[in-house]
Write a structure and sequence with these properties.
Blueprint (H helix, E strand, L loop, with lengths): L7 E3 L8 H10 L8 H5 L5 E3 L12 H14 L14 H7 L2 H7 L7 E7 L5 E8 L5 E7 L7 E5 L16 E6 L4 E7 L3 E5 L4 E8 L1
Parallel strand pairs: 1-2
Antiparallel strand pairs: 3-4, 4-5, 5-10, 6-9, 7-8, 7-10
Length: about 210
């Protein structure tokens, strides 16, 4: 087994500076069970490598940069940069220096998974991803996987976290902290949280069970 002889390894195509390339890598890691062989082996000393970040280059929109960075934190993949640090924009720099998201990436827990996927109109595609953290909290990414059209309203249900080991009931209360906005969002119950996410972009939160 690779984990017995390697600390990290790559299993898919080389990344290039385009959303088509980055999204194909995301699709490859669209695992929906912690029993998946690659997910199960992820942990201290053995990490799946999704290849370099394209944040700060020219091929991704701001929303796409947010998506790659947030999902790489969920995947617990090494954060290797591939950009000219002398030319990186302030917007991209803010993503790369987001210490709250980096902390999720560096957490000692293993890789997260996709919790749900939904299709609506032809331009609507939504995903919710989650990762259990070593402090008993959870990181989630709410992703609009569509690449055109208006914002899409995406719902988060607390029971989605059962897939990553949470012992929760349908009406359990939880709080959310927004990691891109660096602010507390509020307290919610069950499935009452939803938000609008622009195309090819994502929002990321820490979920605390109350």
């Amino acid at each position: 087994m690779l984990s017995e002889i390697c600390h990290t390894w790559r299993n898919f195509d080389d990344v290039s500076d385009s959303w088509a390339s980055v999204s194909s890598i995301i699709d490859f890691w669209k695992r929906n069970s912690t029993d998946d062989n690659f997910v199960a082996v992820s942990g201290p000393g053995s990490w799946n490598d999704a290849d370099m970040l394209m944040v700060g280059n020219n091929g991704l929109s701001h929303g796409e940069e947010r998506t790659q960075f947030a999902l790489y934190a969920i995947f617990a993949t090494p954060l290797f940069l591939s950009t000219d640090l002398l030319k990186v924009s302030d917007e991209s720099k803010a993503i790369l220096q987001n210490t709250e998201i980096i902390a999720v990436n560096q957490d000692a827990s293993g890789q997260g998974i996709m919790l749900s996927e939904g299709k609506g109109e032809w331009w609507e595609s939504s995903r919710v991803w989650g990762r259990a953290l070593s402090n008993g909290k959870y990181a989630i990414v709410i992703q609009n996987d569509g690449n055109m059209g208006p914002y899409v309203k995406i719902n988060f249900d607390i029971t989605m976290l059962r897939a990553v080991g949470a012992d929760v009931l349908e009406n359990d209360k939880f709080s959310l902290r927004c990691l891109f906005g660096h602010k507390e969002v509020g307290e919610f119950s069950g499935s009452e949280f939803s938000l609008d996410v622009e195309s090819s972009s994502s929002e990321m939160f820490i979920v605390t069970l109350l």
